[in-house]
Please model this.
Amino acid sequence: MQQFAKLVQVISNSTKTNEKLSALSEYFATAPARDKTWVLALFTGRRPKRTVNTTQLKNWCIQETGLPEWLFDESYHTVGDLGETIALLLPPPTDRKAAPLHYWMEQLLQLDKADETTKEKFIKSAWSSLDESERFVFNKLITGGFRIGVSQKMMVNALAKTWDIPPATLSHMIIGNWDPREATIEDLLHLHTTGADASRPYPFYLAYPLETPPEELGPPEEWQAEWKWDGIRGQIIKREGQLFVWSRGEELITEKFPEYQPLATALPDGVVLDGEILTYSNNTPLPFQTLQTRIGRKTITRKQLQEAPVAFLAYDLLEWEAADIRDYPLSQRRALLEALVQQVRQPMLQLSPVISFTEWPQLAALREEARAHVSEGVMLKKLSAPYQVGRKRGDWWKWKIDPFTVDAVMLYAQKGHGRRSNLYTDYTFAVRDGDNLVPFAKAYSGLTDKEIAEVDSWIKRHSLEKFGPVRTVEPVQVFEIAFEGIAASNRHKSGIALRFPRIARWRKDKPVSEINTLDDLKRLLEMHRG
Amino acid sequence: MITFTNSGLYCAAGDFYIDPWKPVTRAVITHAHSDHARFGSRYYLCEHATVPLLKIRLGQDINVQGISYYESIYFNGVKVSLHPAGHIIGSAQIRIEKDGEVWVVSGDYKLENDGLSAPFEPVKCHTFITESTFGLPIYRWAPQDQLFAGIGQWIDDNRQLAKASVLLAYSLGKAQRVMQHLQHKTEKFLVHGAIANTQEALVQSGWKLPPIEHITPETPKSAFPNSIIIAPPSADVSWMKKFSPYALGICSGWMTVRGNMRRQNADAGFALSDHADWPGLLSAVKATGAQKVYVTHGFSSVFARYLNEQGIPAEEVVTAYGEEENGNIVNN
Model:
């Protein structure tokens, strides 16, 4: 555990990719085999099932420290991370014990069926045997999510370096379904080179935002344009008679979308499709909000299936007749894809249409109509390019339409997490409705570090409450809020829900009397109702 | 005996202020940090060691009187004496007595003996006015020997890679403490101008401090590899460019929380503070035996509430102390 804690410390402190990479490679070269597998699993988002919940952790910490609950809460609001708060609050260890990472992981997983007393006993004894930095990682293993700046790409590069395998090959080897309890990394690499796992998806190719005029991309005839969909990026796999659906977050989500089941028979074997999971009705995508009703549900009701039916808008073919065809140029993959979709003829499998255009200004004009197509903009893909791995510049670009913007006033503030610890960075904004202010959006991003420091200092001097997580502030600071979409909502007081709201800029020049009104938002909603 | 006014902590009976943030006639100063010792007052009173520090910060021509720890001075029948606060060189708690009633103003303080400042001593009083910079139970310092061993190890690691080690430490107090405890690691420290100035003033008053060299535009690049460089938190990254390759470490109590450290884009953070940690604040308050506690700058509402729950009547007081640190969290 000490070695892992050290690794986490080095990686989270470092701002340099090279340092992180060499810390990872050194870890992979020296750590116990079963620990390595766990590190790979944890750093590629394979979080084990949570066997102890955060309320239990908090309560046991309060018992161990004898602190009042409000003081625990104040500490937590300042630190911004539960696992770290607990690690800092607990008294120093009384019974130091050195055990490897996989020991702790396996012990934790075994708690799954244990009763509360057993869990409590185990966690408390673990705390008393670990030092502060080990406790921190131990708590993070329970609560999940190491957001310490290790990207999938970095993991792949570190492993590629250690095992001397090309990164593109390696990233395909570690994707998909595997259990860190059952295999060492070496097994995994071997197993996957023999291709034993029928469900294994391909790493997604991701586009960069286009920030220069499209003219700089060269002649228009070298490019394919499609609408950019606002759904869930996914892969549909048909192998060995079985159907698998993967999300871009590498989650196997086959069960969530029963609509796709007919494809298990309709699709030929040895096919992998890349495309967008969208709610879709009468040949038109529905707003993202409708898809949200399908995400996160374990069981899908008949009503949901009727109100938010799902289709797959396919835009690429990665495997055909059981052969990896990612090296084919897009033009060729597209031709195969079109033939396949036509042959399958299933209503839930649609082609993502190609937008035909001959000149860049023509496409620019079409892009302005993106919202009418329930789309976020335009995708540009080079016809001669292969399907690459990860986010790479050059062949795929996303050219999004400009967001909506409104001016709003800050009403509430909350402290942030991670590197925003002890800073007020999470804000709630309001628009005017007659004499009232109506909160309509929360935003966390968009300000520079310097602006955050300034806003934070203002909030600390102008808030009404002294305790608890939320500060009500004097409604005077005006911000321009940008967002991608707007929908009616009965879950919000304002009656609207925004898609991806963020701060565009701080309008120090604007008085609160000049902010937008709820009527402005409602008009926007009317104009863009699907 | 003390009221909280717009200009600062005021003792009407003796007609003097303690660490006023606006110009006044008579200012009693706990220590020379700029949020406590401000410009413009007519007469200053402080501990002897603070006098030269006050002069380099507020001007050579200020009217300042130095007295020793434990020495008493009377203002209109109010007895005033200074007692070691252990925060930085010359730092004092201020004890005020009239008609048998005793108040103590802590200024900033820490309980651990840093080897330079006169070590903190609890002073019995009826009313105690305490700081609360680190008044949350997450702040619990490791013993300084352990911290400096960690810093020493970090320097060794940097030297393995022929890197300079740049340590950010507040120019008055923290910088001297860091050099004092790391002097076995180098023949001389390379320092920023702000630290060189402080050192000069201290050496002139007879302090024996480890050797330093002031970094100037003429300092050759060959001086930097493997060196230990001490700079104030305000030092610019562009100023450090010429030290490359170097690693940046920050010495501050705020480094306890990982997110704070990551925000600074430093290579290492060491939770080394000249303020009391949570257990330190609690034991200091209890040792005074005070029946009433006023809590100033820091997590004042939290600390006051906790003291009340512990049966010690406490109240939060708003002051201008610690304000300069808002923009720059490294100073503590």
